[in-house]
# Entry
Amino acid sequence: MSCSISRYFSKQAWRSLITQGGINYCIVLTCGDKNRVTTMKKDSVRETLQLLRKLQSEPHESGYSGYAEYYPGSEDSCIILTAPHGGNIKPDVIPDRCKTCCNNSVPGCKFGQSKYSVSLVRDTFTLEMAITLRSELSAMLGERPHLVICNLNRRKLDVNRDLDNGAQHNPHAERAWRDYHAFIKLARGRVARNCGRGVIFDIHGQSHPEKLVELGYALSSDQLHSIPHPEHSSIRCLCHCSKYRFENILRGPQSLGARLNMEGFISVPSPLHPTPPAKYYSGGYTVQEWGSSRCSTVDAIQLELPYHVREAYKRTGVVIASVLADFITDMYILNTCYLNMRQSQVSRRCFSQLFWDFVERLLYI
Ligand SMILES: [Zn+2]
# Structure
């Protein structure tokens, strides 16, 4: 295990070490300028540790070295929460990722040509937010959502990228990447088998100046500025099954954005902001790979939360969970539609994919 010391602080170390279930969390904070580390920050770290301890006391599956974890949901839960960028473990065996191909030092390096950019910035408080959402949704809906998390810091692994870009050819990081996505696949198979349809909420953080909640449906900014097609979106299945029109689900009165707006979390796309500002995250690898644009019956939505929302996760998590519960009840629980092949005009490609999804579901039984 390795520990990292924040460069912002320089004296008086405060350490907290948890060793549970084969996973080592090491948080080292050192206090520099007098009172720089406020009571608030100490409380915040303590609260995070309490959340993690409580989470780890639940039954779960752990991947290689505990870098990825899966907390199964209730049998009838149709929700999967994922937190790819909230982890903070930085093992020495995995070097920091490079923004480019590190002067081609990595044999076969291709991630410089990846369609995704390389980012090393951790999404702070997103793990805490995902845990809070899970707990609140459990209380509100009576069914515990599935939860998949990555405990590695994004400097070491980015599970919301393709394997090349995310693990950058490090064998330890590659194993963790595969574990993380195997857990999503497992959870998605269970949701598809037990509920027919469901949804992944991929929890992220951003610091764009507009401070909006950015909802990603795998539709680019250009597509949102024109007339987007449901077949290209990560909520394709929902659109085929819903009584509402696609535009309404995406940014109309019934959209997730509209429901968040009503609670004070101004969102895009939504009736207030139907098209994105210059900087907007449309949905990364998880949403594109595991959403229903790939013909699954499980949709995926990326939630990019601004810092002030993430930081206050104890308060905002309760409200956001109530919005998600409302959205899920309307769109998934009360709407019992199963994908109708004729009505949905599913393409031949989708038909083939749905067939293999069906076979996969049989194999899980
Ligand atoms: Zn992120």
